[in-house]
């Protein structure tokens, strides 16, 4: 597979506990339900959908349209045991075929269970091995230690603080963020060590 092929048919990823798949209108209720908790969006740059209808008609519709436009791959995180949507994870802001940003959110009931680490490892493997990306990066609010921990467990390296870097669309102000990144060569080295 290559970069273009990743956008020819939505890639479904599977892990031990999870299926990462394209979001559907039927997911709108679950998406809205977990986004209704301020703890889920407190460190994000928006507050999520305003209603189940907004989740279906605007949010999921936009994410799928942006996939067709090769702007984002946003996977729904689904538990195999329940087949319920519990979060999303995405690659976006592609710079040519070399770089992408990763982001995610997860319903609070599923925090501290290793779920996001499991999903993140599947997505970065896809980005490097299937899409041929050179660098995957993430920006994190400095007050969000849980997200920093998830990224560092996956091998991301903290690169520094970017002052007033991310615009918050609801508050209409700018957030400081920490930049972290993982390079394909470092991912390949860690994969080799794991397989030995």
UniProtKB/TrEMBL annotation:
Keywords: Transferase. One of its GO terms (cellular component) is cytoplasm. GO terms for molecular function: protein-N-terminal-alanine acetyltransferase activity. InterPro entries: Acyl_CoA_acyltransferase (IPR016181), GNAT_dom (IPR000182), N-acetyltransferase (IPR051531). It comes from the Bacteria. This is GCN5-related N-acetyltransferase. Residues 18-184 form the N-acetyltransferase domain.
């Amino acid at each position: 597979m290559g970069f273009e092929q990743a956008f020819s048919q939505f890639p479904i990823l599977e892990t031990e506990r999870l299926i990462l798949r394209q979001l559907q209108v039927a997911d709108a209720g679950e998406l809205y339900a977990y986004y209704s908790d301020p703890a889920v969006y407190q460190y994000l740059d928006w507050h999520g959908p305003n209603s189940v209808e907004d989740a279906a008609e605007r949010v999921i519709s936009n994410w799928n349209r942006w996939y067709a436009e090769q702007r984002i791959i946003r996977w729904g995180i689904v538990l195999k045991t329940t087949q319920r949507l519990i979060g999303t994870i995405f690659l976006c802001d592609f710079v040519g075929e070399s770089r992408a940003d990763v982001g995610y959110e997860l319903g609070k009931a599923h925090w501290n269970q290793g779920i996001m680490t499991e999903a993140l490892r599947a997505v970065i493997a896809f980005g490097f091995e299937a899409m041929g990306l050179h660098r995957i990066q993430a920006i994190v609010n400095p007050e969000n230690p849980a997200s920093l921990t998830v990224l560092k467990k996956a091998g991301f390296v903290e690169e520094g603080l970017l002052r007033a870097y991310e615009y918050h669309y609801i508050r209409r102000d700018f957030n400081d963020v920490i930049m972290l990144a993982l390079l394909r060569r470092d991912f390949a080295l860690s994969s080799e060590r794991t397989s030995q």
